[in-house]
């Protein structure tokens, strides 16, 4: 789809929305779920989850990387997660990685010398071994587990998980098949 078609669609968008639906959205949002995933254009969260406007609170980053919690160096990602949990009171957070993820490839040896910000962002997390699967599924799933560990170290996340008010899920989206698997104790299993 080229940009011109996006413009055409945006111009027509208002006509597809009923007045009542617009008023309901204007009154506020009460999403129950936060969805953290990669900025990759092949991931269309509403397509995967069936989410409608107002139902999914999203955070999209390069490689769905979640920064460590640090109030001395707050980040946009931290602020977004804080808002979802403490203001909106979501009860579920999904961290969704995917196959053929450029960030996971960069973490596993792909050259990104021309992307200094990405290099700086990923460097502390880089690995040295050479993966055999070009889709880097195992590496992508391990990467999701690592982000879950970082997320569970956010104090308010840890507290709400301990209280049973919040659940945290690791998902992995296979770009080729469209299948979604979920992080279990030992492996990722079909959702
Ligand atoms: Zn990605």
TrEMBL record:
Alphabetical UniProt keywords: Lyase, Metal-binding, Zinc
Superkingdom: Bacteria
Instruction: Please state the Enzyme Commission number of this protein.
Output: 4.2.1.1
Which InterPro entries does the entry link to? Carbonic_anhydrase (IPR001765), Carbonic_anhydrase_CS (IPR015892), Carbonic_anhydrase_sf (IPR036874)
Q: Does the keyword Endoplasmic reticulum apply?
A: no
Q: Which PROSITE patterns match?
A: PROK_CO2_ANHYDRASE_2 (PS00705)
Q: Which cofactor does it need?
A: Zn(2+)
Show the catalytic activity.
Answer: hydrogencarbonate + H(+) = CO2 + H2O
Q: What does this protein do?
A: Catalyzes the reversible hydration of carbon dioxide to form bicarbonate.
Q: Which family does it belong to?
A: Belongs to the beta-class carbonic anhydrase family.
Q: What is this protein called?
A: Carbonic anhydrase
* Origin species: Lentzea flava
């Amino acid at each position: 789809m080229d940009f011109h078609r996006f413009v055409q669609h945006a111009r027509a968008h208002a006509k597809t929305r009923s007045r009542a639906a617009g008023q309901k959205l204007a009154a506020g949002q009460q999403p129950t779920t936060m969805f953290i995933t990669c900025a990759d254009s092949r991931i269309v969260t509403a397509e995967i989850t069936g989410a409608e406007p107002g139902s999914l609170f999203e955070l999209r980053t390069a490689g769905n990387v979640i920064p460590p919690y640090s109030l001395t160096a707050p980040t946009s990602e931290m602020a977004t997660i804080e808002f979802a949990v403490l203001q909106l009171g979501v009860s579920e957070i999904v961290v969704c990685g995917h196959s053929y993820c450029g960030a996971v490839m960069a973490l596993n040896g792909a050259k990104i010398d021309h992307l200094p910000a990405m290099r700086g962002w990923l460097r502390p997390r880089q690995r040295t071994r050479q993966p055999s699967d070009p889709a880097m599924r195992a590496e992508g799933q391990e990467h999701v587990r690592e982000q879950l560990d970082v997320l569970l170290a956010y104090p308010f996340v840890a507290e709400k998980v301990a209280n049973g008010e919040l659940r945290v899920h690791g998902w992995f989206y296979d770009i080729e098949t469209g299948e979604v698997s979920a992080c279990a104790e030992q492996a990722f299993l079909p959702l």
